[in-house]
Amino acid sequence: MIIEDLSEPELALWEAFPAARPVDLPGAPVRAAVIAWMLLGGRERLDGQTPGVHLSGARIAGRLDLSYAEIQHPVILTRCEFEQAPLFTGARTGLVDLAASRAPGLQAVDAVFGGALRLEGCEMTGPVQLAGAHVSGTLDLSGAAIHARQAVQADGLHVDRDLLCADAVIDGEFRVAGARIGGAMTLDGARAGRSGGLSLTAEGAVIDGGLSCARGFRSWGELSVQDARIGRRCVFSGARLSNPGGVALNAERLGVEGGLRIDDGFSAEGEVLLRGARVTGSLRCAQARLADPKGRALNAPLMEIGSGLRFTPAFVAEGEVFLDSTQVRGSVNFDGARLSNPGATALSLRRLGVTGRLSCSEGFRADGEIVLVTARIEGSLEFHGAALSNPGGRVLSLWEVNAGGGIDCCEGFTATGDVSIRNSRIAATLCLAETTIDGELHLRGVDAASLRIGPRTHLLRSVDLRHSRVGVLDDVPARWPARVLMNGFTYDSLEAPLPVRERLGWLAGQAYQPQPYEQLAAVYRRQGHDEAARDVLLAKQRRRRSGQRLGARLWGHAQDWTVGYGYRPFRAALWLAALLLAGTVVFTAHQPPAFKPGEAPPFNAFLYTLDLLLPIISFGQEGSFGPRGAQQWLAAAMIAAGWILATTILAGLTRALSRQ
Fold first, then answer.
1. For residues 62 and 43, what is the distance between their CA atoms, to the nearest angstrom?
2. How far apart are CA 623 and CA 614, in angstroms?
């Protein structure tokens, strides 16, 4: 190429090249071959000057092909319009600046840029291909508009500093799988993807300075950061992701050395997948809305969170929130959240581990079942003021839960559906004060330090307490429902033991089982209320009698009338005294004849009556005198009465001694 062949615009660029002087040629045509010729050594250098191409506003005719070239000079082609996509494949260059230019794309596979690669404000009607490229400075796509099915193809890209894509329009897939970004990757305000396809694919990427998809970022299709490793923080605050029926955010096995924020107006149509994610800081999902009806709005099992998991305030999920086997150092907070998955599981927390507390309080709402199975919560599990609904099914299932700080379902807690707490260990109080449960309450196999039922507790259906154990039962007997299953239910003490009549009314409304009576009596005895304990055991015998055969019932009535089954010993004394008085009077008035008149001792009506009444002790009167006629029937009745009294007293003593 000779100078005489250059057009006037090209000649101006030729003259400016040795000093890299800016040349502004609005709309003027410049051949791409001329630019390449100068960059590849066709224009000599001048001593003391730094050459380079610095062109603005021109139309670049032909293809700028710098493939595999080694270019020492800066390439600045801003606000230019390229007829064909520039080629930098395999090239080694310094700064390349194509800001605000238009082109059918850019091909720079395996290129090495010794400085920055600036594409901000560019409009590309074809793909930007940067796979395997290395940018020593910043890669800037801010405000760019790229229209292609695979808009940015940058798998294996290496950027030493930042990758900036703020406010860009990526009309197609943005691929940076396996990329290594030394600084931050920023897509704040950007738009990426197409419906039904992929938006951002950063699988396996390493981003040392953090990832930010915030400030109105929009995504159509699946956004994937699967297996990516992100330093400092990962932010999706205010982002809007859309992939209905599919995965909106795929962060499976994501690693964040800092915090992960999915909050402040974040919304997702489609599944948010965080399975196996590891976050050394906190995960914040406040003021977010996730929607995948009949699916999993948040699918996040096997996560490891280093500093708390927060869904408050104003977290909304349509579809299941699935957090099985997640481990959290710190607390998990759902206060004020609203979960909806009617007729199915709204919140699944199987095998959850939390070193702090788990709170679903302060306006928390769930339409569907909440499941905690084999969970370990070192702090408290709180449902203050929560409203749970799953009519006709279970609304809350806490099975094999270990709650170190207790479980509080109080302060206006309401549940429309069954509540099931089974085989759980609660180191503090299980509180059901100010609670309304319109469904069955299952507390089977629970071990709690205390159980509290308050005056504002409303248990509208049955309660199952079988085989549970509590240290202190702090309740109001009148607040229990009509049907309570309590066989095997044990408690060490009663916060309010008396009056016993209310306690007996509590037991009387249930199907008869002996254990609840024995348990209540044992507690009364431990607390020093022996008379109350005897009342309970007497009530037990009377309940037992109602289910016996006729003969046993008659015998039971006899024991009840006489000595109250041995629990009313003063009655035996009264009966003995009455019979002794009657016998003494009768036999004094009508002395029975002696069997051997000459050998009989002097007759004593009092001792003779004692001989009849006490079958074991003998005072020598009964064997010496024999009544006749009506007296004989009276004597027989006294002997029978004595046996009955002795037997019932002996039975009562035996029970007392066996209990001791």
1. 20
2. 13
**Element (DSSP H or E) covering residue 259:** strand 255-261
Q: State which H helix or E strand residue 605 sits in.
A: helix 605-613
Size (the chain), residues? 660
> Could you check whether the bond before residue 601 is cis, i.e. omega within 30 degrees of 0?
no
Angle at 76 between CA 75 and CA 81, to 5 degrees: 115
Taking the C-alpha atoms of residue 486 and residue 166, their distance in angstroms, rounded to an integer, is: 64
Q: What is the mean pLDDT of residues 611-630?
A: 74
| Cα(254)–Cα(381) distance, integer angstroms | 28
Whether residue 168 contacts residue 190, with contact meaning beta carbons closer than 8 Å, is answered with yes
Residue pair 379/356 in contact by the 8 Å Cβ criterion: yes
Distance in angstroms (rounded) separating the CA atoms of residues 231 and 254 = 11
Burial of 5 (0-12, 13-18, 19+ CB in 10 A): exposed
- Residue type for 351, please? R
Q: Quote the CA–CA distance of 366 and 356 in Å, as a whole number.
A: 22
Angstrom distance (rounded) from CA 526 to CA 630: 51
| Interatomic CA distance for residues 369 and 379, integer angstroms | 22
Tens-digit pLDDT profile for residues 108-123: 999 999 999 999 999 9
Helical axes 569-589 vs 550-563, angle rounded to 10°: 80
CA distance 632 to 612: 11
DSSP code, position 359: E
Q: What is the pLDDT of residue 155?
A: 97
